[in-house]
Amino acid sequence: MNLLSAKFELSFDKFILSVDIEIPVHGFTVLFGPSGSGKTSFLRCISGLERPPDGFLQINDEIWQDEKRGIFVPTSERKIGYVFQEMRLFPHLNIKGNLLYGLKRNAIQNGDALFSQVIAIMGLRSLLNRHPGNLSGGEKQRVALARALLTSPRLLLMDEPLAALDTKHKQEILPYFQRMQSELKIPVFYVSHSINEVLQLVDTMLLMDKGKIITQGTVGDVFPHPSLVKCLGNSLMGTVLETTVVRQDEEFQLTILKFNDHTLYVPRRDIKPGNRLRIHIRAEDVILAIEPIKDQTSVLNILPAKIVEVVPNTEDECKMDVKLDVGSPLLASITRKSVHQLNLKSGQNIHAHIKAIRMAHEFD
Amino acid sequence: MNFSNIDYQPIVLTLQLATVTVLVLLVIGIPISWWLAHTRTRFRPIFEAVIALPLVLPPTVLGFYLLIILGPNGLIGKPMEAVTGSHLSFTFTGLVIASTFYSLPFVVQPLYNSFEAIGKGPLEAAWTLGASKWDAFWTVATPMALRGYITAIVLGFAHTLGEFGVVLMVGGSIPGKTKVLSIEIYDRVETLDYSQAHLLSSSLLTFTFLTLLIVYYVNRKLPIRIS
Q1: CB contact B128 to A (< 8 Å)
Q2: Distance between CA atoms of A288 and A304, rounded to whole angstroms?
Q3: Which chain A residues have a beta carbon less than 8 Å from that of B139?
Q4: Which chain B residue is nearest to residue A107, measuring alpha carbons?
Q5: For a Cys-Cys bond, which of A94, A134, B14, B99 suits B181, CB 3.0-4.6 Å?
Q6: CA–CA dist A269, A362 (Å, integer)
Q7: Closest chain A CA to residue B124
Q8: How far apart are CA B85 and CA B172, in angstroms?
Q9: B150 is in which domain, residue-wise?
Q10: Which pLDDT tens digit goes with each residue over A273-306?
Protein backbone atom coordinates (compact mmCIF):
# COMPACT_ATOMS: atom_id res chain seq x y z
CA MET A 1 0.00 0.00 0.00
CA ASN A 2 1.36 3.41 -0.95
CA LEU A 3 1.25 5.89 1.87
CA LEU A 4 1.73 9.62 2.24
CA SER A 5 2.72 10.92 5.68
CA ALA A 6 2.49 14.64 6.22
CA LYS A 7 2.99 16.95 9.16
CA PHE A 8 2.53 20.63 8.40
CA GLU A 9 1.95 23.77 10.49
CA LEU A 10 1.64 26.98 8.54
CA SER A 11 -0.08 30.29 9.32
CA PHE A 12 -2.19 32.08 6.78
CA ASP A 13 -4.28 35.24 7.01
CA LYS A 14 -7.51 33.54 7.93
CA PHE A 15 -6.51 30.16 9.35
CA ILE A 16 -3.64 28.02 10.48
CA LEU A 17 -3.00 24.91 8.47
CA SER A 18 -2.36 22.18 10.98
CA VAL A 19 -2.08 18.70 9.51
CA ASP A 20 -0.60 15.50 10.86
CA ILE A 21 -1.85 12.60 8.82
CA GLU A 22 -1.21 9.41 6.89
CA ILE A 23 -3.17 9.03 3.68
CA PRO A 24 -3.27 5.95 1.46
CA VAL A 25 -2.24 6.99 -2.03
CA HIS A 26 -4.39 5.25 -4.61
CA GLY A 27 -7.36 6.10 -6.78
CA PHE A 28 -9.16 9.38 -6.37
CA THR A 29 -8.83 11.09 -3.01
CA VAL A 30 -10.75 14.28 -2.55
CA LEU A 31 -9.89 17.07 -0.13
CA PHE A 32 -13.32 18.41 0.63
CA GLY A 33 -14.38 21.38 2.73
CA PRO A 34 -15.69 24.93 2.67
CA SER A 35 -13.59 27.61 1.01
CA GLY A 36 -10.86 28.86 3.28
CA SER A 37 -10.53 25.51 5.02
CA GLY A 38 -6.95 24.99 3.86
CA LYS A 39 -7.44 22.47 1.07
CA THR A 40 -5.36 24.35 -1.49
CA SER A 41 -2.70 25.19 1.08
CA PHE A 42 -2.37 21.52 1.96
CA LEU A 43 -1.96 20.67 -1.71
CA ARG A 44 0.67 23.40 -2.11
CA CYS A 45 2.60 22.03 0.86
CA ILE A 46 2.60 18.57 -0.71
CA SER A 47 3.89 20.02 -3.99
CA GLY A 48 6.63 22.04 -2.30
CA LEU A 49 5.21 25.37 -3.50
CA GLU A 50 4.78 26.23 0.18
CA ARG A 51 7.46 25.35 2.67
CA PRO A 52 6.09 25.08 6.20
CA PRO A 53 8.83 25.44 8.80
CA ASP A 54 9.35 22.16 10.70
CA GLY A 55 7.34 20.37 7.99
CA PHE A 56 7.60 16.69 7.25
CA LEU A 57 6.47 14.89 4.12
CA GLN A 58 7.11 11.35 3.04
CA ILE A 59 5.60 9.47 0.14
CA ASN A 60 6.28 5.73 0.24
CA ASP A 61 9.96 5.50 1.14
CA GLU A 62 10.91 8.89 -0.32
CA ILE A 63 11.29 11.81 2.06
CA TRP A 64 10.44 15.11 0.35
CA GLN A 65 10.65 17.30 3.39
CA ASP A 66 12.15 16.81 6.81
CA GLU A 67 13.25 20.15 8.19
CA LYS A 68 14.72 18.54 11.29
CA ARG A 69 17.26 16.86 9.03
CA GLY A 70 17.44 19.81 6.65
CA ILE A 71 15.78 17.97 3.79
CA PHE A 72 13.64 19.86 1.30
CA VAL A 73 13.21 18.51 -2.21
CA PRO A 74 12.30 21.42 -4.52
CA THR A 75 9.05 21.26 -6.46
CA SER A 76 10.82 20.59 -9.76
CA GLU A 77 12.37 17.39 -8.39
CA ARG A 78 9.20 15.95 -6.84
CA LYS A 79 7.44 13.50 -9.08
CA ILE A 80 4.11 15.30 -8.98
CA GLY A 81 1.73 16.74 -11.51
CA TYR A 82 -0.21 19.84 -10.56
CA VAL A 83 -3.39 21.06 -12.24
CA PHE A 84 -4.17 24.59 -11.16
CA GLN A 85 -7.62 26.06 -10.86
CA GLU A 86 -6.69 28.83 -13.32
CA MET A 87 -4.98 26.26 -15.58
CA ARG A 88 -1.86 28.43 -16.07
CA LEU A 89 -1.08 27.42 -19.63
CA PHE A 90 1.95 29.17 -21.09
CA PRO A 91 0.66 31.89 -23.44
CA HIS A 92 3.90 32.06 -25.43
CA LEU A 93 3.76 28.40 -26.45
CA ASN A 94 1.20 26.59 -28.56
CA ILE A 95 -0.62 23.58 -27.18
CA LYS A 96 2.06 21.17 -28.34
CA GLY A 97 4.73 23.36 -26.75
CA ASN A 98 2.79 23.41 -23.51
CA LEU A 99 2.40 19.65 -23.53
CA LEU A 100 6.07 19.00 -24.31
CA TYR A 101 7.35 21.42 -21.66
CA GLY A 102 7.07 18.88 -18.87
CA LEU A 103 7.71 15.82 -21.02
CA LYS A 104 11.12 17.17 -22.07
CA ARG A 105 12.16 17.91 -18.50
CA ASN A 106 11.45 14.49 -17.05
CA ALA A 107 13.34 11.34 -17.91
CA ILE A 108 10.43 9.37 -19.29
CA GLN A 109 10.73 6.01 -20.97
CA ASN A 110 8.68 5.76 -24.14
CA GLY A 111 7.87 9.46 -24.06
CA ASP A 112 6.41 9.29 -27.56
CA ALA A 113 4.06 6.49 -26.61
CA LEU A 114 2.94 8.33 -23.49
CA PHE A 115 2.41 11.49 -25.55
CA SER A 116 0.16 9.65 -28.04
CA GLN A 117 -1.72 7.91 -25.27
CA VAL A 118 -2.40 11.06 -23.25
CA ILE A 119 -3.40 13.02 -26.36
CA ALA A 120 -5.83 10.28 -27.25
CA ILE A 121 -7.33 10.08 -23.76
CA MET A 122 -7.77 13.83 -23.55
CA GLY A 123 -8.89 14.26 -27.16
CA LEU A 124 -6.29 16.91 -27.99
CA ARG A 125 -5.01 15.88 -31.41
CA SER A 126 -6.86 18.62 -33.28
CA LEU A 127 -5.72 21.31 -30.84
CA LEU A 128 -1.94 20.80 -31.00
CA ASN A 129 -1.16 23.81 -33.19
CA ARG A 130 -3.59 26.18 -31.54
CA HIS A 131 -2.67 28.77 -28.93
CA PRO A 132 -4.03 28.79 -25.38
CA GLY A 133 -5.78 32.12 -25.98
CA ASN A 134 -8.06 30.54 -28.60
CA LEU A 135 -9.25 27.63 -26.48
CA SER A 136 -12.46 27.25 -24.51
CA GLY A 137 -12.29 26.77 -20.76
CA GLY A 138 -12.94 23.05 -21.03
CA GLU A 139 -10.28 22.61 -23.70
CA LYS A 140 -7.75 24.53 -21.63
CA GLN A 141 -8.50 22.32 -18.65
CA ARG A 142 -7.89 19.19 -20.73
CA VAL A 143 -4.57 20.63 -21.92
CA ALA A 144 -3.57 21.52 -18.36
CA LEU A 145 -4.39 18.00 -17.22
CA ALA A 146 -2.56 16.39 -20.14
CA ARG A 147 0.47 18.61 -19.55
CA ALA A 148 0.66 17.44 -15.94
CA LEU A 149 0.15 13.78 -16.92
CA LEU A 150 3.01 13.96 -19.42
CA THR A 151 5.53 14.38 -16.61
CA SER A 152 4.52 10.84 -15.63
CA PRO A 153 3.82 11.91 -12.06
CA ARG A 154 3.72 9.58 -9.13
CA LEU A 155 0.94 11.68 -7.64
CA LEU A 156 -1.38 14.08 -9.44
CA LEU A 157 -2.58 17.11 -7.50
CA MET A 158 -5.68 18.85 -8.83
CA ASP A 159 -6.90 22.09 -7.32
CA GLU A 160 -10.58 22.60 -8.13
CA PRO A 161 -9.93 21.94 -11.80
CA LEU A 162 -13.58 22.41 -12.70
CA ALA A 163 -14.30 25.53 -10.66
CA ALA A 164 -13.82 27.85 -13.62
CA LEU A 165 -16.22 25.90 -15.86
CA ASP A 166 -19.99 26.04 -16.13
CA THR A 167 -22.17 23.01 -15.40
CA LYS A 168 -22.37 21.82 -18.98
CA HIS A 169 -18.61 21.91 -19.49
CA LYS A 170 -18.04 20.25 -16.14
CA GLN A 171 -20.07 17.27 -17.29
CA GLU A 172 -18.02 17.15 -20.49
CA ILE A 173 -14.75 17.03 -18.59
CA LEU A 174 -15.63 14.44 -15.95
CA PRO A 175 -15.52 11.48 -18.35
CA TYR A 176 -11.95 12.49 -19.30
CA PHE A 177 -11.00 12.32 -15.63
CA GLN A 178 -12.54 8.88 -15.36
CA ARG A 179 -10.73 7.65 -18.48
CA MET A 180 -7.47 9.05 -17.20
CA GLN A 181 -8.01 7.20 -13.97
CA SER A 182 -8.87 3.86 -15.53
CA GLU A 183 -6.12 3.96 -18.19
CA LEU A 184 -3.16 5.58 -16.46
CA LYS A 185 -3.84 4.59 -12.84
CA ILE A 186 -2.12 7.63 -11.39
CA PRO A 187 -3.28 8.40 -7.86
CA VAL A 188 -5.01 11.76 -7.59
CA PHE A 189 -5.46 14.23 -4.75
CA TYR A 190 -8.33 16.38 -5.78
CA VAL A 191 -9.43 19.60 -4.08
CA SER A 192 -13.11 20.30 -4.45
CA HIS A 193 -16.08 21.84 -2.81
CA SER A 194 -18.56 20.37 -5.28
CA ILE A 195 -20.42 17.34 -3.96
CA ASN A 196 -21.23 16.30 -7.49
CA GLU A 197 -17.57 15.84 -8.38
CA VAL A 198 -17.04 13.94 -5.16
CA LEU A 199 -19.85 11.50 -5.86
CA GLN A 200 -18.80 10.85 -9.42
CA LEU A 201 -15.06 10.49 -9.01
CA VAL A 202 -13.94 9.82 -5.55
CA ASP A 203 -12.91 6.72 -3.65
CA THR A 204 -11.53 8.31 -0.52
CA MET A 205 -12.50 11.55 1.11
CA LEU A 206 -10.70 13.91 3.47
CA LEU A 207 -12.95 16.44 5.14
CA MET A 208 -11.19 19.70 6.03
CA ASP A 209 -12.32 22.68 8.05
CA LYS A 210 -10.41 25.67 9.46
CA GLY A 211 -7.04 24.28 8.43
CA LYS A 212 -7.57 20.87 10.03
CA ILE A 213 -8.49 17.48 8.68
CA ILE A 214 -11.73 16.54 10.44
CA THR A 215 -12.10 13.00 9.20
CA GLN A 216 -11.03 10.69 6.39
CA GLY A 217 -12.50 7.55 4.89
CA THR A 218 -14.68 6.29 2.06
CA VAL A 219 -17.35 8.62 0.72
CA GLY A 220 -20.02 6.55 2.45
CA ASP A 221 -18.18 6.82 5.79
CA VAL A 222 -17.53 10.53 5.63
CA PHE A 223 -20.86 11.61 4.21
CA PRO A 224 -22.92 11.48 7.44
CA HIS A 225 -20.31 13.54 9.30
CA PRO A 226 -21.90 16.62 10.92
CA SER A 227 -19.19 18.94 9.60
CA LEU A 228 -20.22 18.04 6.09
CA VAL A 229 -23.65 19.54 6.67
CA LYS A 230 -21.96 22.86 7.14
CA CYS A 231 -20.49 22.65 3.64
CA LEU A 232 -23.52 21.19 1.95
CA GLY A 233 -26.49 22.73 3.71
CA ASN A 234 -29.63 20.82 4.64
CA SER A 235 -30.83 20.39 1.08
CA LEU A 236 -27.94 18.07 0.14
CA MET A 237 -27.44 16.44 3.50
CA GLY A 238 -28.04 12.73 3.29
CA THR A 239 -26.51 9.34 2.73
CA VAL A 240 -24.31 7.90 0.02
CA LEU A 241 -24.74 4.22 -0.70
CA GLU A 242 -22.77 1.90 -2.95
CA THR A 243 -25.21 -0.35 -4.77
CA THR A 244 -25.03 -3.06 -7.41
CA VAL A 245 -27.25 -3.10 -10.48
CA VAL A 246 -29.33 -6.31 -10.41
CA ARG A 247 -31.41 -6.06 -13.55
CA GLN A 248 -33.44 -3.79 -15.75
CA ASP A 249 -37.22 -3.84 -15.50
CA GLU A 250 -38.31 -3.27 -19.13
CA GLU A 251 -42.03 -3.20 -18.42
CA PHE A 252 -41.92 -0.27 -16.01
CA GLN A 253 -38.63 1.18 -17.23
CA LEU A 254 -36.93 0.82 -13.87
CA THR A 255 -33.46 -0.20 -12.82
CA ILE A 256 -33.32 -2.54 -9.85
CA LEU A 257 -30.47 -2.07 -7.40
CA LYS A 258 -29.24 -4.07 -4.47
CA PHE A 259 -27.38 -3.01 -1.37
CA ASN A 260 -26.94 -5.26 1.63
CA ASP A 261 -30.09 -7.39 1.37
CA HIS A 262 -32.32 -4.56 0.27
CA THR A 263 -33.80 -3.94 -3.14
CA LEU A 264 -34.21 -0.45 -4.51
CA TYR A 265 -36.08 0.75 -7.61
CA VAL A 266 -34.84 3.75 -9.50
CA PRO A 267 -35.79 5.24 -12.88
CA ARG A 268 -34.09 3.26 -15.62
CA ARG A 269 -30.38 3.90 -16.21
CA ASP A 270 -28.35 2.30 -18.96
CA ILE A 271 -26.00 0.41 -16.71
CA LYS A 272 -25.25 -3.26 -17.12
CA PRO A 273 -26.27 -5.67 -14.35
CA GLY A 274 -23.38 -6.39 -12.00
CA ASN A 275 -22.00 -2.85 -12.26
CA ARG A 276 -21.76 -0.65 -9.24
CA LEU A 277 -23.77 2.51 -8.88
CA ARG A 278 -23.26 5.14 -6.22
CA ILE A 279 -26.51 6.70 -5.10
CA HIS A 280 -27.36 9.59 -2.87
CA ILE A 281 -30.47 9.73 -0.68
CA ARG A 282 -31.27 13.15 0.72
CA ALA A 283 -32.25 13.14 4.39
CA GLU A 284 -35.33 15.18 3.47
CA ASP A 285 -36.46 12.48 1.04
CA VAL A 286 -36.72 9.84 3.77
CA ILE A 287 -40.19 9.51 5.37
CA LEU A 288 -40.53 7.54 8.58
CA ALA A 289 -43.54 5.39 9.53
CA ILE A 290 -44.09 2.95 12.37
CA GLU A 291 -45.61 0.35 10.01
CA PRO A 292 -44.80 -0.02 6.31
CA ILE A 293 -47.49 1.75 4.25
CA LYS A 294 -47.83 -1.12 1.78
CA ASP A 295 -50.29 -0.91 -1.12
CA GLN A 296 -51.45 2.51 0.07
CA THR A 297 -48.60 4.71 -1.06
CA SER A 298 -46.83 5.60 -4.26
CA VAL A 299 -43.45 5.18 -2.56
CA LEU A 300 -41.64 2.17 -4.04
CA ASN A 301 -38.66 1.91 -1.77
CA ILE A 302 -39.46 0.92 1.80
CA LEU A 303 -36.69 -0.31 4.10
CA PRO A 304 -37.03 -1.72 7.60
CA ALA A 305 -34.74 0.25 9.88
CA LYS A 306 -33.67 0.69 13.45
CA ILE A 307 -33.29 4.14 15.01
CA VAL A 308 -29.73 4.69 16.22
CA GLU A 309 -30.02 8.25 17.46
CA VAL A 310 -32.28 11.31 17.20
CA VAL A 311 -30.42 14.65 17.30
CA PRO A 312 -31.49 18.26 16.69
CA ASN A 313 -30.60 19.63 13.28
CA THR A 314 -27.88 22.24 13.59
CA GLU A 315 -29.24 24.48 10.85
CA ASP A 316 -33.00 24.37 11.31
CA GLU A 317 -34.71 24.44 14.71
CA CYS A 318 -37.94 22.76 13.61
CA LYS A 319 -36.04 19.74 12.23
CA MET A 320 -34.48 16.71 13.86
CA ASP A 321 -31.94 14.36 12.27
CA VAL A 322 -32.74 10.69 12.71
CA LYS A 323 -29.80 8.35 12.24
CA LEU A 324 -31.03 4.96 11.07
CA ASP A 325 -29.45 1.58 10.61
CA VAL A 326 -30.56 -0.26 7.49
CA GLY A 327 -27.56 -2.57 7.46
CA SER A 328 -25.55 0.56 6.78
CA PRO A 329 -26.24 4.07 8.07
CA LEU A 330 -29.11 6.08 6.60
CA LEU A 331 -29.98 9.63 7.58
CA ALA A 332 -33.53 11.03 7.76
CA SER A 333 -34.55 14.60 8.47
CA ILE A 334 -38.05 15.11 9.86
CA THR A 335 -39.81 17.77 11.92
CA ARG A 336 -39.53 17.97 15.67
CA LYS A 337 -43.33 17.72 15.77
CA SER A 338 -43.24 14.36 13.95
CA VAL A 339 -40.62 13.01 16.33
CA HIS A 340 -42.91 14.03 19.18
CA GLN A 341 -46.10 12.58 17.64
CA LEU A 342 -44.50 9.25 16.72
CA ASN A 343 -42.61 9.21 20.02
CA LEU A 344 -39.39 8.12 18.27
CA LYS A 345 -36.60 6.75 20.43
CA SER A 346 -33.21 5.12 19.96
CA GLY A 347 -33.40 1.39 19.39
CA GLN A 348 -36.92 1.54 18.01
CA ASN A 349 -37.77 -0.42 14.85
CA ILE A 350 -39.30 1.64 12.10
CA HIS A 351 -39.78 1.78 8.34
CA ALA A 352 -37.97 4.23 6.12
CA HIS A 353 -39.89 5.26 3.00
CA ILE A 354 -37.58 6.70 0.40
CA LYS A 355 -39.26 9.27 -1.80
CA ALA A 356 -36.44 9.88 -4.27
CA ILE A 357 -33.03 8.50 -5.09
CA ARG A 358 -30.46 10.42 -7.04
CA MET A 359 -27.57 9.09 -9.04
CA ALA A 360 -24.25 10.78 -8.60
CA HIS A 361 -24.35 12.60 -11.95
CA GLU A 362 -27.75 14.12 -11.41
CA PHE A 363 -26.50 16.97 -9.26
CA ASP A 364 -25.51 20.28 -10.62
CA MET B 1 23.75 71.70 -44.94
CA ASN B 2 27.27 70.47 -45.32
CA PHE B 3 27.76 66.75 -44.79
CA SER B 4 31.44 66.73 -45.81
CA ASN B 5 32.89 68.19 -42.67
CA ILE B 6 30.72 66.33 -40.17
CA ASP B 7 32.71 65.13 -37.22
CA TYR B 8 31.57 61.49 -36.81
CA GLN B 9 33.51 60.97 -33.63
CA PRO B 10 30.79 62.19 -31.22
CA ILE B 11 28.18 60.09 -33.03
CA VAL B 12 30.23 56.92 -32.80
CA LEU B 13 31.10 57.64 -29.19
CA THR B 14 27.45 58.24 -28.32
CA LEU B 15 26.33 54.97 -29.93
CA GLN B 16 29.15 53.13 -28.14
CA LEU B 17 28.17 54.66 -24.83
CA ALA B 18 24.47 53.86 -25.27
CA THR B 19 25.18 50.27 -26.32
CA VAL B 20 27.57 49.52 -23.47
CA THR B 21 25.26 51.23 -20.98
CA VAL B 22 22.25 49.20 -22.08
CA LEU B 23 24.22 45.96 -21.80
CA VAL B 24 25.41 46.88 -18.31
CA LEU B 25 21.87 47.93 -17.39
CA LEU B 26 20.43 44.61 -18.52
CA VAL B 27 22.96 42.69 -16.46
CA ILE B 28 22.13 44.59 -13.29
CA GLY B 29 18.57 45.68 -14.14
CA ILE B 30 17.13 42.19 -14.73
CA PRO B 31 18.07 40.85 -11.27
CA ILE B 32 16.96 44.09 -9.61
CA SER B 33 13.56 44.08 -11.33
CA TRP B 34 13.10 40.38 -10.70
CA TRP B 35 13.90 40.80 -7.04
CA LEU B 36 11.62 43.84 -6.74
CA ALA B 37 8.73 42.00 -8.40
CA HIS B 38 9.00 38.98 -6.09
CA THR B 39 10.30 40.30 -2.79
CA ARG B 40 7.98 40.45 0.18
CA THR B 41 10.10 42.96 2.08
CA ARG B 42 8.22 45.86 3.57
CA PHE B 43 11.10 48.14 2.57
CA ARG B 44 10.16 47.82 -1.07
CA PRO B 45 8.99 51.48 -1.31
CA ILE B 46 12.46 52.60 -0.29
CA PHE B 47 14.10 50.60 -3.06
CA GLU B 48 11.53 51.80 -5.56
CA ALA B 49 12.16 55.41 -4.55
CA VAL B 50 15.94 55.03 -4.86
CA ILE B 51 15.66 53.52 -8.33
CA ALA B 52 13.18 56.20 -9.48
CA LEU B 53 15.37 59.01 -8.14
CA PRO B 54 17.18 59.75 -11.43
CA LEU B 55 13.77 60.41 -13.03
CA VAL B 56 13.22 63.56 -11.00
CA LEU B 57 16.67 64.54 -9.78
CA PRO B 58 18.32 67.29 -11.86
CA PRO B 59 21.05 65.55 -13.90
CA THR B 60 23.56 68.08 -12.66
CA VAL B 61 22.96 67.00 -9.08
CA LEU B 62 23.42 63.35 -9.99
CA GLY B 63 26.47 64.27 -12.04
CA PHE B 64 27.93 66.30 -9.19
CA TYR B 65 27.75 63.44 -6.71
CA LEU B 66 29.06 60.95 -9.26
CA LEU B 67 31.95 63.29 -10.04
CA ILE B 68 32.90 63.31 -6.38
CA ILE B 69 32.51 59.57 -5.94
CA LEU B 70 34.39 58.70 -9.13
CA GLY B 71 37.06 61.38 -8.72
CA PRO B 72 40.63 60.92 -7.39
CA ASN B 73 39.49 61.28 -3.77
CA GLY B 74 36.12 59.58 -4.18
CA LEU B 75 34.69 56.42 -2.70
CA ILE B 76 35.19 54.52 -5.97
CA GLY B 77 37.71 56.73 -7.76
CA LYS B 78 40.39 56.52 -5.06
CA PRO B 79 40.66 52.72 -4.86
CA MET B 80 40.40 52.60 -8.66
CA GLU B 81 43.33 54.97 -8.96
CA ALA B 82 45.33 52.90 -6.47
CA VAL B 83 44.68 49.71 -8.45
CA THR B 84 44.64 50.85 -12.08
CA GLY B 85 46.53 54.09 -11.86
CA SER B 86 43.63 56.23 -13.01
CA HIS B 87 40.46 57.44 -11.38
CA LEU B 88 37.18 57.39 -13.27
CA SER B 89 36.08 60.97 -13.78
CA PHE B 90 36.54 62.28 -17.32
CA THR B 91 36.87 58.76 -18.73
CA PHE B 92 34.61 56.59 -20.90
CA THR B 93 34.22 54.08 -18.06
CA GLY B 94 33.13 56.92 -15.79
CA LEU B 95 30.56 57.92 -18.40
CA VAL B 96 29.21 54.36 -18.55
CA ILE B 97 28.87 54.28 -14.77
CA ALA B 98 27.12 57.66 -14.76
CA SER B 99 24.78 56.70 -17.61
CA THR B 100 23.96 53.46 -15.86
CA PHE B 101 22.68 55.33 -12.83
CA TYR B 102 20.98 57.93 -14.97
CA SER B 103 19.07 55.43 -17.15
CA LEU B 104 18.46 52.77 -14.50
CA PRO B 105 14.75 53.56 -13.94
CA PHE B 106 14.08 53.41 -17.68
CA VAL B 107 15.28 49.81 -17.76
CA VAL B 108 14.08 48.62 -14.36
CA GLN B 109 10.53 50.02 -14.60
CA PRO B 110 9.36 48.18 -17.74
CA LEU B 111 11.03 44.93 -16.65
CA TYR B 112 9.60 45.21 -13.15
CA ASN B 113 6.11 45.89 -14.54
CA SER B 114 6.33 42.90 -16.87
CA PHE B 115 7.62 40.52 -14.21
CA GLU B 116 4.95 41.68 -11.81
CA ALA B 117 2.19 41.26 -14.42
CA ILE B 118 3.33 37.68 -15.09
CA GLY B 119 3.21 36.94 -11.39
CA LYS B 120 4.16 33.68 -9.79
CA GLY B 121 1.48 31.53 -11.43
CA PRO B 122 3.23 30.53 -14.66
CA LEU B 123 6.52 30.03 -12.80
CA GLU B 124 4.92 27.69 -10.28
CA ALA B 125 3.38 25.79 -13.19
CA ALA B 126 6.84 25.47 -14.76
CA TRP B 127 8.38 24.24 -11.49
CA THR B 128 5.72 21.56 -11.12
CA LEU B 129 6.55 20.45 -14.67
CA GLY B 130 10.15 19.86 -13.67
CA ALA B 131 11.79 23.18 -14.55
CA SER B 132 14.37 24.58 -12.12
CA LYS B 133 14.00 28.22 -11.11
CA TRP B 134 16.76 29.25 -13.53
CA ASP B 135 15.17 27.19 -16.34
CA ALA B 136 11.71 28.64 -15.64
CA PHE B 137 13.11 32.16 -15.69
CA TRP B 138 14.56 31.76 -19.17
CA THR B 139 11.86 29.58 -20.74
CA VAL B 140 8.72 31.09 -19.18
CA ALA B 141 9.29 34.47 -17.55
CA THR B 142 11.61 35.90 -20.20
CA PRO B 143 9.52 35.06 -23.28
CA MET B 144 6.40 36.19 -21.48
CA ALA B 145 8.13 39.47 -20.56
CA LEU B 146 9.45 40.05 -24.08
CA ARG B 147 7.64 43.37 -24.44
CA GLY B 148 9.12 44.55 -21.19
CA TYR B 149 12.62 43.63 -22.40
CA ILE B 150 12.18 45.48 -25.69
CA THR B 151 10.78 48.56 -24.01
CA ALA B 152 13.58 48.49 -21.44
CA ILE B 153 16.31 48.20 -24.07
CA VAL B 154 14.91 50.96 -26.25
CA LEU B 155 14.14 53.40 -23.47
CA GLY B 156 17.52 52.77 -21.86
CA PHE B 157 19.29 53.27 -25.18
CA ALA B 158 17.33 56.35 -26.22
CA HIS B 159 17.60 57.97 -22.83
CA THR B 160 21.37 57.48 -22.77
CA LEU B 161 21.65 58.98 -26.26
CA GLY B 162 20.15 62.20 -25.05
CA GLU B 163 21.88 62.68 -21.73
CA PHE B 164 23.67 65.94 -21.24
CA GLY B 165 23.93 67.22 -17.68
CA VAL B 166 25.40 64.11 -16.14
CA VAL B 167 27.91 63.70 -18.96
CA LEU B 168 29.01 67.28 -18.74
CA MET B 169 29.64 66.97 -15.01
CA VAL B 170 31.33 63.57 -15.01
CA GLY B 171 32.92 63.40 -18.43
CA GLY B 172 33.56 66.94 -19.47
CA SER B 173 34.01 67.34 -23.18
CA ILE B 174 37.13 65.49 -24.25
CA PRO B 175 36.92 64.72 -28.00
CA GLY B 176 36.94 60.98 -28.75
CA LYS B 177 36.75 60.16 -25.09
CA THR B 178 33.79 61.82 -23.46
CA LYS B 179 32.44 64.28 -26.00
CA VAL B 180 29.07 62.81 -26.90
CA LEU B 181 26.47 64.01 -29.39
CA SER B 182 24.43 66.21 -27.09
CA ILE B 183 27.55 68.03 -25.92
CA GLU B 184 28.74 68.40 -29.50
CA ILE B 185 25.41 70.02 -30.34
CA TYR B 186 25.73 72.33 -27.36
CA ASP B 187 29.26 73.31 -28.43
CA ARG B 188 28.09 74.03 -31.99
CA VAL B 189 25.35 76.28 -30.70
CA GLU B 190 27.78 78.02 -28.41
CA THR B 191 30.03 78.77 -31.39
CA LEU B 192 27.00 79.84 -33.47
CA ASP B 193 27.52 76.94 -35.93
CA TYR B 194 23.76 76.50 -36.36
CA SER B 195 23.89 74.45 -39.55
CA GLN B 196 25.92 71.68 -37.88
CA ALA B 197 23.72 71.91 -34.80
CA HIS B 198 20.67 71.53 -37.07
CA LEU B 199 22.14 68.56 -38.85
CA LEU B 200 23.08 66.71 -35.67
CA SER B 201 19.84 67.57 -33.89
CA SER B 202 17.62 66.50 -36.74
CA SER B 203 19.57 63.26 -37.14
CA LEU B 204 19.14 62.50 -33.47
CA LEU B 205 15.46 63.40 -33.63
CA THR B 206 14.85 61.19 -36.67
CA PHE B 207 16.82 58.29 -35.27
CA THR B 208 15.06 58.40 -31.91
CA PHE B 209 11.64 58.74 -33.46
CA LEU B 210 12.21 55.82 -35.84
CA THR B 211 13.47 53.62 -33.03
CA LEU B 212 10.43 54.30 -30.90
CA LEU B 213 8.13 53.81 -33.87
CA ILE B 214 9.63 50.40 -34.62
CA VAL B 215 9.35 49.39 -30.98
CA TYR B 216 5.72 50.35 -30.64
CA TYR B 217 4.95 48.64 -33.93
CA VAL B 218 6.74 45.44 -32.94
CA ASN B 219 5.09 45.50 -29.53
CA ARG B 220 1.66 45.56 -31.14
CA LYS B 221 2.56 42.55 -33.27
CA LEU B 222 3.93 40.45 -30.44
CA PRO B 223 1.67 37.51 -29.66
CA ILE B 224 1.87 37.85 -25.90
CA ARG B 225 0.05 40.58 -24.17
CA ILE B 226 -0.05 40.72 -20.45
CA SER B 227 -2.34 43.31 -19.04
Answers
A1: yes
A2: 10
A3: 101
A4: B130
A5: B14
A6: 12
A7: A49
A8: 20
A9: 9-221
A10: 888 888 889 899 999 999 988 788 888 899 999 9
CATH number, position A278: 2.40.50.100
Contacts of A154 in chain B (CB under 8 A): none
Query: What are B74-122's pLDDT values in tens digits?
Result: 888 888 888 887 777 788 888 899 999 999 999 999 999 999 999 999 9
pLDDT tens-digit readout, A81-117: 999 999 999 999 999 999 999 999 998 888 899 999 9
CB contact under 8 A, A151 and B122: no
> Is residue A354 in a domain?
yes
Residue B1 predicted with pLDDT over 80: no
- Look at residue A126 in the predicted model and tell me its pLDDT: 95
Which residues, other chains included, contact B92 with Cβ-Cβ below 8 Å and sequence gap of 6+? B13, B16, B17, B171, B177, B178
Final residue before a domain boundary, out of A193, A224, A255? A224
Measured between beta carbons, the chain B residues lying within 8 angstroms of A89 are 125
Task: Count how many pairs of residues, chain A against chain B, have C-beta atoms within 8 Å.
Answer: 67
- B144 vs A80, A92, A131: nearest CB: A92
Under DSSP, the state recorded for A77 is: G
CA angle A130, A133, A139 (to 5 degrees): 70
Residues 6+ apart with CB under 8 A from A361: A171, A174, A196, A199, A200
* Residue B226 scores a pLDDT above 50: no
State which residue of chain B sits closest to A91, comparing Cα positions.
B224
Residues 6 or more apart in contact with residue A214 via CB below 8 angstroms? A33, A207, A208, A225, A227
- pLDDT at site A221: 83
Cβ-based contacts of B223 with chain A (< 8 Å):
91-92, 131
Q: How confident is the model at residue B35 (pLDDT cuts 50, 70, 90)?
A: very high
CA dihedral of residues A37, A42, A44, A46 (deg, nearest 10) = -170
CATH of the domain at A175: 3.40.50.300
CB pair distance less than 8 Å for B122 and A90 = yes
